[in-house]
Design goal:
One of its GO terms (molecular function) is glycosyltransferase activity. With about 350 residues, this protein is α/β, with parallel strands linked by helices. The protein is built from eleven helices and 13 strands. The protein has two domains: about 180 residues, Glycogen Phosphorylase B (Rossmann fold); about 150 residues, Glycogen Phosphorylase B (Rossmann fold, 3-Layer(aba) Sandwich). The strands form three sheets. A six-stranded parallel β-sheet has the order 10-9-8-11-12-13, with helices on both faces. It has a five-stranded parallel β-sheet with strand order 3-2-1-4-5, sandwiched between helices. The protein has a two-stranded parallel ribbon with strand order 6-7. Helix 1 crosses helix 11 and helix 4 packs across helix 9. The two termini are about 15 Å apart.
């Protein structure tokens, strides 16, 4: 099968630092190549991939030293290029947000599939989708679908990671709690700090501070960081996760938004590290309660979950990750969805 994957241009594929969507795209396209498909990736030139790369921009937007970039112009230019080459492919797989590609391909939506990697509860999305109702969609969790139930959903494919990417650390955890991701209001690092303080454990924060989050960080979070019990170590890359997540007693994921998946949750599980997460978004679909972690609804419940961490077997956490969240399983499920679409075209 000749498949084109169209990636967002904000981060490289895979990302050098923070970034979940582009990491999943990297594992997916490499896995499809391994399974014998002819795969082309439309992305920035700094992508590292086994697919045929069509570089549509010299560099990912976030790491571009030029502050005067236009994400809208960059993505529109890429879509024009994809449209010009569309006849070379059996299927176009889009990973873009907010359906920006729909008008470009409305004359053959059946040859496309879209995986939205973010939340879908924005006010304008239902009206937009009703204008282009024939585009097939693949969700990354069942919960993600709820705001857009009328969409043409053909499958749910949860994220997966290569099983040899992360391995459990062969020693007892060091007794600190970990917060990894983005320092934004909806990720609720303030909750993580409160949980650590009330539990008496150290909290290590490894997180990106985006431009939109700087005021929140400096006004709300920075005053809580004392450098002793609450430590901020900055944004980390893939190579730093073994030490950071593997040595943690647990990952705290106290989100306050409808998280469509949460890649860091299964990254922690890959190290055998359990997760304490708020009951929001897809968390009940990802975490096996009392097996790979605890889903909580309050600070009190989270503190109680910290006390119960010794009840969880880190080997079982890892085994559950292997059974449920491998990249191979993810690739095979996407491949099955592609076959379903191709069968529909043939009929």
């Amino acid at each position: 099968m000749k498949i084109a994957h169209i990636a967002p241009l904000y981060e490289s594929v895979p990302p050098r630092l923070y970034g979940g969507t582009e990491r999943i795209i990297a594992y997916l396209v490499d896995g499809l190549v391994e399974r014998g498909h002819q795969v082309t990736l439309f992305a920035s030139a700094d992508a590292v991939t086994r697919a045929d790369l069509v570089p549509v921009r010299h560099q990912a937007l976030r790491l571009d030293a030029n502050p005067l970039t236009s994400p809208t112009a960059a993505h529109l230019s890429m879509l024009h290029q994809v449209r010009q080459q569309a006849d070379q492919f059996d299927l176009l797989h889009f990973h873009l947000s907010h359906f920006v590609h729909f008008p470009f391909f409305e004359d053959f939506p059946e040859r496309t599939v879209t995986t939205p990697h973010g939340r879908l509860d924005y006010a304008d999305l239902p009206d937009a989708y009703r204008r282009w109702p024939h585009f097939p969609m693949i969700s990354i969790s069942d919960r993600q679908r709820q705001p857009l139930k009328e969409a043409n959903w053909i499958a749910t494919v949860q994220h997966g990671l290569p099983l040899d990417l992360h391995r459990p650390v062969e020693r007892d955890p060091l007794g600190y709690l970990a917060f990894l991701g983005r320092l934004s209001r909806d990720k609720r690092p303030d909750r993580a700090i409160e949980i650590a303080r009330r539990s008496g454990l150290k909290l290590k924060i490894a997180a990106k501070i985006g431009d939109d989050d700087r005021t929140y960080f400096h006004e709300t979070i920075a005053p809580m960081i004392d450098g002793r019990q609450i430590e901020y170590i900055g944004e980390i890359g893939e190579s730093d996760k073994a030490e950071f997540l593997g040595n943690a007693a647990a990952l705290l994921f106290p989100i306050d938004w409808p998280e469509p998946f949460g890649l860091v949750v299964i990254e922690a599980m890959a190290f055998g590290t359990p997760v304490i997460a708020w009951d929001n978004g897809a968390m009940p679909e990802i975490i096996d309660q009392g097996v790979t972690g605890y889903i909580v609804r309050s600070i009190d419940e989270a503190v109680a979950a910290v006390v119960r961490l010794p009840e969880l077997d880190r080997r079982t956490v890892r085994q559950t990750f292997e059974a449920r969240f491998s990249a191979d399983r993810m690739v095979r499920e996407y491949e099955a969805a592609y076959v379903q679409l191709m069968d529909g075209l043939a009929r």
